[in-house]
Amino acid sequence: MCKEAGAWLHALPNKMKAFQLSDKEFRTSLLFRLFMEQPIPAGLRCNCRSHPTIDKRGHHLLTGCGHGGCRIRAHDNQVAEVNRCLNYLNIMTRKEQRHLFKEFDPNDNHIPDITLINPPASPMCAVTPLLFDISISSPIDGLNRGGDAYANMSSTAAKQPCRAANERAKAKENKYRPLCTPQAGRPQRFSFLAFIYETTGRIHPKSLKFIKLCCDTASIHKKIDSDSIYTYVLKRLSVCFQKSMASTVSERIFALTTPSTTYNQDHSFDIQYVNSEQPF
What we know:
Strand order of the largest sheet: 1-2-3-4
Order of helices and strands: HHHEEEHHEHHEE
Distance between the termini: 50 Å
Strand content: 5-15%
Number of helices: 7
């Protein structure tokens, strides 16, 4: 793994929530990093659409399963943390800005995760504002099918760094390129950068390069060494990512191994009661 993926291991816990992991989150993250088995009962099946047998290391729960909204929350947590870090680096942002492309296409509903109003000048940002779309990819194929999907990976694919991140970045760029490229009757109004994570914690090189550029620019105004700012931001992003991944695995295991309980509201008497699948 790259050193950026393990930045959370060098983050000292303090009063800031950005650097805090619970014991359970730390254990789950460490097991995942060391490719060790999570506390998942043998033969446990997921309740997502394909109902696969969950692999013992929990990879299916991270990116192969969208049930329960855990994957969406993990994505939203990363969007929020990236946004906070950009604001710390003196970059003004807007989250999930709507109707950016309606002027040229009334049916266009693309919503980037973050719009950077004043990004630092670079070849990655030909015009401003700069649009960020954040995504989490997995280097293991076939996770939606469950089981030991990684057992079928070729050694060539397993040894190729950033393979999944590169593929996801290319897909995002193909999605936004027609919208951010000047065309007849439509000048270029935006630049685009795909901010991609892998489930290992690795961040795409282009994303890291842009973060480093932002840190270099911020160091001039903050009067702080650029490398110190870069290390601080990487630790924040890394801790938040591990917290999100660990919470996803823990919440899904708990949901799958605990009897289902639903809460309904009796509006006639304004009394909350509980319906359980288990007989009393």
